[in-house]
Write a structure and sequence with these properties.
- The chain has about 300 residues and is an alpha/beta fold.
- It has a ten-stranded mixed β-sheet.
Length: about 300
Amino acid sequence: MSAIKQKLVVGISSRALFDLEASHAVFEQHGREAYCNYQIQHEEDVLEPGVAFGLARKLLALNEAEHERVEVILLSRNSADTGLRVFNSIAHHNLPITRAAFTSGDSPYRYVGAFGADLFLSADPDDVRAALAAGCAAATIVPGHSFSHGEGALKIAFDGDAVLFSDAAERIFKEKGLAAFAESESRSAGEPLPGGPFKAFLEALTRIQAEFDPDECPIRTALVTSRSAPAHERVIRTLRAWHIRIDEALFLGGMTKARFLQAFGADIFFDDQATHIGTASGMVAAGHVPHGVANE
């Protein structure tokens, strides 16, 4: 196994890491050449933290001088020329990010596998879908300003079906309704759910958590799901069968998730339902996972 694969590797786009909405508006309104000129003219102007900045900073803070647990890699549609502003901002904010791919407008997702990334975050939904299809956990970030949750533990929240788990159970709900879903999940309570696109990423977080005393662990995870009893049992038994640690589990029975995510203090939340992401993104960093029956 190569050295890079012994770490948790996160690929992140420049629009997810920094607030690039002003320059993106130049691109949308005036085209690529105007955008390039704008970035060069402003390359000494430090970019403000973007929506996933806090996540990246807390991930990198898990590293120690003798033990690098996490690497964050920049995957950007900028050119190397226009990307200079991004690297200047990385240096200004003291982020230890040294590897990058600048693709001059082409999709950078094809380098996700080459870098061995376990997670890819981007503001471009096409890049995210391609990364998911290639077997990497990936989510579309709602771009904008950073949400600050202080210097405490890294807190990551996940939806269940079609994110941590496959969408098999959710398909029953969509096709046959709540009663059929509840009956099916009760009948299959002892049968672990198949894994979803974020199972391996959660496993990687669990491996890092195992290196710390539980009372002093710098990572907390939460399952935030619309499921309720009796459909909770299969979820609990599935995580137990996977030997995966979840610190908090919220079974909300259809309640809106946003305020619970704010109360948890999530640095990021992953969900396959665009409606849940829409309400949550005003309070916490949110990533849409375009996977499963809800996105067909």
